[in-house]
Amino acid sequence: MSSYDELGMFEDNAREAGLPWTGPPRVERVDVDGVSALVWGDRGQAPLVLLHGGAQNAHTWDTVALALDRPVVAIDLPGHGHSAWRDDHDYRPAVMAPAVARAVDELAPDAAAVVGMSLGGLTALALTAARPDLVRRLALVDITPGVNAEKAADVHAFIDGPEYFADFDEILTRTVQFNPSRSEASLRRGILHNAHQLPDGRWSWRYDRFRAEPIDSAGFDMDSLWSALGATTAPVLLLRGSRSPVVDDADVAELRRLQPDAQVVLIDGAGHSIQGDRPVELATHLGGFAHA
Predict the structure, then answer these.
(1) Fold of the domain spanning 10-290
(2) Domain ranges (residues) in the chain
(3) Active-site positions?
(4) 153 by DSSP, 3-state: which?
C-alpha cells in the first residue's frame, strides 16, 4: 500500500458523489484533551458538530462535509480514530459526553446543531442532558434509545470479526462483504481512515475493540437517554435509513410521544450508515435543519 495521506482523498469523495471540485478544502486535525477532531473551515465558526457511530471515525462524514460546503467539526469519539483510548475502555454515551463537551466548547461553542449517528447519536443525547447549552438543535442519524442487540445484529456481526488481518486485501474483502451497496473505492478509503498497518505487516482497526461495540443496550442506561430526549427543548430531527432495522416504527412512535414536534425523515435506499449510502441527500437535510 502507498503511504496514507489523511487529507489527500477528498477529491475522490467529491467525484464519486458527483460534487463539483474546485480544489482541496481547508481542513485541519485538532486535539482537545485527547479528543481529536477534523475542523473544516474556520475554527469556532462551524454551525454543525458531527459525531460518528461506534467503530467509525470522523472521516465517515467527509462526503457530507464536502456537500455542505461550510464549516463543520467532525469529532473522533474517545477510543476511535485519532482520539485517545480510555484507560478503563468504557465508551458508554454518558461516559464519553464530558470529553465531547470539552471539544465542542473549544471548537464549535456556538454550533447551531449537533448531529449524531448510532453511538454518536446516543452520545449526543447524553451531551444534551449534561450540557444543553451546547445542543441548540439535535439531529439523530438512524438511532434512538430503542436500539437493542437484535436490531443492531448486522452491525455487531461486522464489528465482532477478526482483530487482525493478514494484509489489506483481507480486510477489504470482509468490509465489501458486509457493505454490498457501497462502492469498493469508498470502502477502500474508509479502511485507510479506520485501520492501520502494524510493524509485522498485518492490519488492524484503529478503534479500541475492548469496549467499542456501538449499540449494546446492556449498561447504556437507555431509560436515561429516552429521558434526555424527552427533556430537551432543542428541535429534534430523526433521519431513518429505509433499509436499516436499527430504528423501527415503535421507536418513532416513542420519539413522537416525547417530542411531538420532532421531524422524521426516511432516506430511501439508505442503510444504517446514511452518511455513507446517501451523503448528499443527508447533507441537504442537515444543512436545512441547522439553518431553520
Answers:
(1) Rossmann fold (3.40.50)
(2) 10-290
(3) 118, 142, 272
(4) helix
